[in-house]
Structure formats: structure tokens, C-alpha cells
UniProtKB/TrEMBL annotation:
It comes from Paraburkholderia bryophila. Residues 39-274, 349-599 form the ABC transporter domain. This is Simple sugar transport system ATP-binding protein. CDD domains: ABC_Carb_Monos_I, ABC_Carb_Monos_II. It comes from the Bacteria. GO terms for molecular function: ATP binding; ATP hydrolysis activity. Signal peptide: none annotated.
Amino acid sequence: MTHPASEPNPQAMGAAAHRAGDATSAANAANADARAPILATTAVTKTFPGVKALQRVDFRLFPGEIHTLMGQNGAGKSTLINVLTGVVAPDAGTIRLGGEVVAFASPQEAEAAGVRTLYQEVNLCPNLSVAENIFAGRQPRRFGAIDWPAIKRRAQAALARLDVSLDVTRSLDAYPIAVQQMVAIARALSVDARVLILDEPTSSLDDGEVSQLFKILRHLKQSGIAILFVTHFIEQTYAISDRITVMRNGEREGEYLARDLPADQLVAKMVGHERMSARLREAAHEGHVSHEGYESQERQPVRQQTVSATQATEATQPTQPTQTTEATPPTQATQATQATQATQATQATQTTEATPPTHPFIELQGVGRRGTLQPIDLDLQRGQILGLAGLLGSGRTETARLLFGADRTDSGVILIEGRAVKLRSPRDAVRHGIGYCAEDRKKEGIVAELSIRENILLALQARRGWWRKISRQRARELADLWIERLGIKAADAEQPIGLLSGGNQQKALLARWLATDPQLLILDEPTRGIDVAAKFDIMDRLLALCANGLSILFISSEISEVLRVSHRVAVLRDRRKIAEVAGKASNEDNIYRLIAGSGE
Ligand SMILES: Nc1ncnc2c1ncn2[C@@H]1O[C@H](COP(=O)(O)OP(=O)(O)OP(=O)(O)O)[C@@H](O)[C@H]1O
């Protein structure tokens, strides 16, 4: 996510991390060590079968500070939060709240003690009113009956505390997700909260909404509330944090004042110096690590960077000539050839950005669906990434769903390799070599009760037909291959996928589609929840696949990310395509102008 203009320049992160207006609270945070932490753990340990999720973790959170928990996928961040909030019990170690040893048996107990948590997905009732949501389960009563005027008044007051004014009698789902989040915060704070924990609260918010949330958090910390924040966005970490705790492999790597920890060092600590890829190390060394971890100061798109032969070899994966062939590990010889091809192709892209595309894999001509998407022309070239930029609700996901046959079109023609086709269902799309990594991994992606292996093999098996079962041994080999390739942190391929950390589930979803050796991969927010180093790695792998002919439709609400990876960018607004940009025109300012309707 790009950073709101009003926030500090992330390139100057570290020493200049604090805004002038925050000087007092920064000083407070720096002096915090002299005070007692409001919430602390000592040697907290939690083991799941085969995984040491937390190993003797010491953690401290001070009143009136914003403290960010950082770490790669599977590092133990959510587990630490779950331990702090009574969701899981630690195997060993102590938790103290306000100096007293506590052992919360449930989140309700933690809440009653003033430790309030806001999860990634807003956990409210969409069909109840805002006021009912804020007071659900603890409505003020008068003479035994629910006191509605009081509920309304107190809900308004709770929101006013956050500088939000809403019609509290309207149902929650009448408001956008960002507002719903404010309501969730108001609910969390409507009882005495001493600690507010936010687990990746910004992943569905746009820049303006992030700014608004941060304003509220700063306001809350001034009132002495301790805030624990979890995010993968480095830029946001520096915009909001006084203190950072870095987790690595279930251990606390260290605790730092944000202003003393430059971003490149933060990434090195998360990843472990020894495990940093060559490019990440270089970017970190040169101080170019930004919120995606690998951005050069000139915002050079990845597509314009040259992939070295070694990097391409690492990143390249096999593409087989026919769709039905399963992905197998490449031989050294094929790897070398692919590496050369990848290098050549990437270098070619660098110098021939303006070269007209030669071979579309798929073309949409006037394709639309009433009420969902205005007729759109779009083509995806072989070996290219087409980015879709637009705000939430602009038609990005709708376009993806039409391309994948998840929704039926009611106008226009779809051509694959020049021949008109009908994509009536996802099954049709898969048959034509199209894969779709959906935005909402819980609803449309993972099947929580199935194993990681079964989840990875799902699309491939569906394409082969369920009657032609992939042998168990082959399935294991393939699953192990993809687990290793994408660095999925799991004890075993047979674990239920629901037990993986969020970022690792996302990687498994990507593996599901890569295992089908697709011709076109639709990626809807593919890096949401994925840590900075893994993002870097995944994008490299996708680029190498593109060099071998894969087409990608890349959707992300982070415009900077779309720009970095895409050869061309189609801009959507109000469910129609309003522009397509490439080359010099594809810069962030221009795209924001187009989205805002002032650049056409
Ligand atoms: N209930 C569980 N059963 C088994 N393993 C679990 C369970 N919960 C977490 N784990 C494992 O513990 C490790 C730490 O997971 P955790 O969710 O705390 O990581 P995280 O740092 O929050 O990752 P992410 O950034 O991907 O959300 C992971 O290997 C995960 O698979």
C-alpha cells in the first residue's frame, strides 16, 4: 500500500521515523523503559504438533505507545497475540497485565480485563445497526428492558471519541469496510480498554482510510492506551510505531525503538542475514528497502530489472508443453536453458518496452455483464503481466471472475489463441489453462479441513478429472516440491491447511495454481498477508514464469506493486475500463489521476 502523502517519507525511515507532532509521545516511548509495562510475557512457550510456534518469548508493551510486531510468515506473531488474549494457553511462561500474573482462559476474560483485540476480518454483525454492534451483548437496560435511546446516545459518544460521526441506527453493512473497522474499534473501547491489539487491520483499507485509522490510533495512545499492531507493511510500521518487536522462527529476535532501527536492518532481522536473497540483500544494503522490501528509489519496475542467470535459475520453474503435464522438477540442463531464456527475455523487456505485443493468449472484446462490469476490451499477451488498477469496487475482481467463468458474461466475445470460446464455468476456464488465485482465501480459496497436500493438488486433480486420481506418491512429491519452492512453513504436507499461518495459506493457494502449469494466472491480491521477503521471492518467480510464456493478470490495491510488476496497466473506475497505460505513462501519479477522474 502506498503511503499517505501526509505521512513521513519512508526512505528516511529509522532516524526520522517520528513526526514532529509526535515528539512528546516518542520521548514517552523512549522513556518507557523507566516505567512498568502494562502487558508483558516472560519465557512464553507454545508448541503445536511438529511446530515450535513460540520459544521462551519475552515481550513488553508500555502504556501510551504503539508497538508493532514484525516477522515473516509463520514467525509466531498471531500465536503470541493468541496467547496474550486467551485464545490459546501457553505451554510455559508467564503473562503479566499491570504487573499481575494473569492466565486468561478465553478472549472474553482478556476483554473483561481490558485487553481488546481487533482481528483482520471485522467480526461484527453486518445486519445489526451500528449502535447494536457497539453494545451487542451488553446493552444498557432500564427497568429490565433494553434502553434504546441510551444505546444510541452512548454509541454516538463512543464514535465521537474517535472523531467519527455516523447515523448509528443504520445497519452496519450500509457502511464501507473502513467505517466498519472504526465501529469495531469503538466497540473495543466502549469498555475500559487498557490494551488494544490490531492484527493486520489495514490489509483491506485504502490509503485515505489507513491515514484515518492512524490518526485515531495516535489519538488513543495520547490517552495512555497501549496499542499492539501487527502488519507486513514496513512503511506503515514506521509511520505509526514507537517500538518494534521482531519475531523470527518463534523466537523474539529483538525489541527496538523504531527510530533506532533503519528499515534495511529491520528486514535483515526478520529474515536473518544469512537467508537474505542476493537482491534483497543488495536492496537492503543500499537502503532501498521500502514497504514491499525491494523497491529502488526511482521506483523502477521489476520488469525493467535484469534478472541474473543465477537468480533466474533459482526462480525458474518448469513449464511443460502441454497443459496436462504435471509440473516436475527441472533437470540442470533445462534449468540452464530456462535461465538463459529468462535472462534474455527479461533483458529484452528492459530495452524493448515499447515493442508491440506479438501474441495475445486471451482477448476480451466488449465483454461485460449487466450491473457488474461495463463492456471491456482487454488483451493478455503471452509472457506479460497486465496489471489492473482501481479502487475497491471499481470492477477489478468482477473482471477476474468473468475471465475465470465464475460469473457469466452477457456481452462480447472472449478469444483464446485467436479462437472464440465460452467460459461458462471455472471448469471451462481451467480446461483452457486459466488459474485464479482469489482475493478472499477463506471463502473461495483454501479448504480448511483438507491437508496442505490436498489443497495444493486440488486444481490439478480437478482438471485431470476426479476419476483419474493422482497417485498418492506423486501427490506427495508435488506437494513437497511446491512447499519447498514457495518456502511454505509447515511441519508436514499432511497437516490441515487451516493450521498454517495466514501468509503460508496464501502461498499454498498460489502453489495450487502453479502446480497446474497454467497459461494464464489471475492473481487477485496475491501478496496480501505475505511477508516482505516472500513477496520479493514470489514476484521473482512469477517473472521467471512469464519469461517462459505465462500470462498474468495482476490485481492489487497497492498501485506501487501493480506498477512494479506489470508490463501494462489497465485502469478501472466505476466498473469500466477508463485507460490503459504502459511505459512512461505508468507512474503512480498518473494512475491516481486517472482513478480520480482528472487524468483522462
Ligand atoms: N493451531 C495450530 N496448530 C498447529 N500449528 C499452528 C497452529 N497455529 C499456528 N501454528 C503454526 O505455528 C507457526 C506460527 O504461526 P503464526 O500464525 O503465529 O505465524 P505468523 O507470524 O502470525 O504468520 P503470518 O504472518 O503468516 O500470519 C506456524 O508454523 C503455524 O503453522
